[in-house]
Specification:
The structure is a homodimer. Chain A is α/β, with parallel strands linked by helices. Chain A contains 15 helices and 16 strands. In chain A, helix 8 links the parallel strand 11 and strand 12. In chain A, helix 11 packs antiparallel against helix 14 and helix 14 crosses helix 15. Chain A is globular and about 60 Å long. Chain A starts with a strand and ends with a helix. Chains A and B meet through helix 1, helix 13 and helix 14 of A and helix 1, helix 13 and helix 14 of B.
Chain lengths: ~400, ~400
């Protein structure tokens, strides 16, 4: 068994399902916190296992192939038993392909059909990443779900450029799949998990062009991946465009396989996309925003740096039951941030992640009880009110 | 009740006692982690309550008057119910007088018999700290134990300079005590704790001169403080000199009151001083060293940055039962440090503090069973072997 996906209930396009993976079950729709270099920044693993609704913790987290390849190196992690063992996270893991990070390097990279030559952001050393190497790295890391090597098309892009980029992604998807199938049994936990292997997801590209998205979905679905990601979104386009592309692409993907939108989003967005039928999402937003003092609450966002919180004895969010809201005041959190205390990042991150996990728990419960439309309306109302307060 | 000190057992000069304070009991000898700005750097309070022997956590922590006076301000903390409530730490707290921090400013201060004029290290703003203001600030913060305002004599100092400095400390001790006695009932939790007040400790100075130390101890003991600190140590003198001054001064202090050596020390030192009859110690060493990758183990110190740990699957210290040693490898901790992950500071600090708390638990158990000399010999042996390995 490498992956099974069981849908329990649907409400319109939304699905409530269980994704069974070698390291455990994931109840979907799910939000996956990002642990770039093998650590969800500032949060000890045992707290990550406890945060959020009913203290159940994060179900699955994401790590970045690019970062771990450069440091400490995938061979080191393989030698230590794979990423689960290395970082002492024994629940499911997902790694991206490294493509998006290399794409983000801009000046430091050169793309050819063979792969991407790039320079390390750490020391300027030269590297070459191909679909085959991306698979080798991801197999050595041993996440439960791994991603095909793709090119994330920039925004804006002409139709010709988006098509060319998409075709490269398809070529690399094929090579990723072939290489993965030939080496899947090399994953560090293959024997220990009774012959289980990782699951490889394909990534739909096509920029903001519906025809290309359609073509990309068809091509990848024909290759028969274990799941499908919708890539190339949240790269600078208006949010309405993101939503349009998600809605369109979701409709082109097989109903019986998990669908993953990469790199989204704000709380109201993740509810929207779940309603459209997306099963998995990840984003650095809750963790990165936390380190900058931006906190998500049931009534919108607050910036804890704000002077109005200096003597505020209340919690970040009176409706939140997270360990931070149960124990600390806005005044204390503001002080920690102002004094640049390392605890600020720890507590802010714990709260924001708990908020995201709670939102997804609400989404799952709403689908079960057939009330997702009501939840979505409520989320939109809060968002609208918050925008009105700002204006 | 503000403080009771009950000695249960002694072994030579060492004492095993309970210090009962308004916010709870402290089993001594005790090591107090330092939470400079109202946070033991990088550690959430609920973990601070759990670390160390038998998961009992830190019994008492220290905060700095100077830092909290400048930011967020003692009036803000008073308005929020005092430091216990502000930082959500409901066990005992101790604040220093601010004297040592102001002393550390060097160029930015001017000492007169009235007090110290200094400039903030944050924004250069001018301030004046007197014994009376130090008491007002510490009463507003509301720690269970507060310290008289003193001048920490620099090292080296001539006899004349050390005497003059000591006399200033005595003058300030008198003024601290008078002001504290006149305002003790203004502590934020006075009513809530059924009329309890804080306890004020005097600080013995006198540099490295035995005659001055004797004179200082006599003068302060005559003022009848609730406890006595030995200040002006660990300011650059050789360790043998520190030990000599501690031994001499402890012998001059009343047996029935707690004795506190400020700002020490390495693991082997805190065991030495406990054996000499010291009841309380504090130091930034375990927390600060942790943030620089220096970890304390039962077999000496290790620097986690070292390349030899890159593929080391073992824990920091196989003999340690802390949550870090139970879960993470040296290889992972080295990676976190090298990648400058914020989790490095969190985990390293948790381990070092657990180590210090465990050491003090061993000291307490050794005094109870009359085996402190054996423990001390063992600690010295490890220290000697570690030094030999280095040489």
């Amino acid at each position: 068994m490498s992956l099974t996906f069981t849908i329990h209930k649907t409400e319109n396009t939304a699905r409530r399902a269980t994704l069974a993976l070698p390291h455990g079950n994931v109840e979907t729709p799910v939000f996956m916190p990002v642990g770039t270099a093998g650590s969800v920044k500032a949060v000890p693993q045992h707290l990550l296992e406890e945060i959020g609704a009913a203290g159940r913790g994060a179900q699955i987290i994401l790590a970045n192939t690019y970062h771990l390849y450069l440091r400490p190196g995938h061979q080191t992690i393989r030698a230590l038993g794979g990423l689960h063992t290395f970082m002492s996270w024994h629940r499911p893991l997902l790694t991206d392909s490294g493509g998006f990070q290399v794409f983000s390097l801009n000046e430091l990279r050169k793309v050819t059909p063979e792969g991407v030559e790039f320079r390390s952001h750490l020391d300027g050393s030269k590297h070459f990443l191909s679909p085959e190497l991306s698979m080798d790295i991801q197999i050595a890391l041993g996440a439960d779900i791994i991603m095909a090597f793709d090119e994330c098309t920039e925004y804006p892009a002409t139709l010709a450029r988006a098509r060319e980029s998409m075709q490269l992604t398809h070529l690399w998807a094929r090579r990723s799949l072939d290489h993965f199938r030939a080496h899947a049994q090399e994953v560090p936990w293959h024997a220990e998990r009774y012959g289980a292997t990782q699951s490889l997801f394909g990534i739909v590209q096509g920029g903001m062009y519906p025809d290309l998205r359609r073509q990309s979905a068809e091509t990848l679905v024909a290759m028969d991946f274990a799941g499908y990601a919708i890539g190339g979104l949240a790269v600078g386009e208006p949010r309405e465009k993101t939503r349009e592309m998600v809605e369109l692409t979701v409709g082109l993907l097989p109903k019986d396989k998990p669908r993953y939108v990469m790199g989204v989003g704000y709380p109201e967005e993740i509810v929207e996309y779940a309603a459209l039928g997306v099963d998995m999402m990840d984003c650095v937003l809750p963790t990165r925003a936390a380190r900058h003092g931006l906190l998500f609450t049931s009534e919108g966002r607050i910036n804890i740096k704000n002077r109005v919180y200096a003597e505020d004895a209340g919690p970040i969010d009176p409706a939140c039951a997270c360990l931070v809201c149960r124990r600390y005041s806005r005044a204390y959190l503001r002080h920690l941030f102002a004094a640049q205390e390392p605890l600020a990042a720890v507590l802010n991150t714990l709260h924001n992640l708990a908020r995201y996990l709670d939102i997804m728990q609400s989404v799952r419960e709403a689908i079960e009880s057939g009330t997702l439309s009501a939840l979505l309306a409520d989320v939109r109302r809060v968002e609208g009110e918050a925008a009105a307060r700002k204006a």
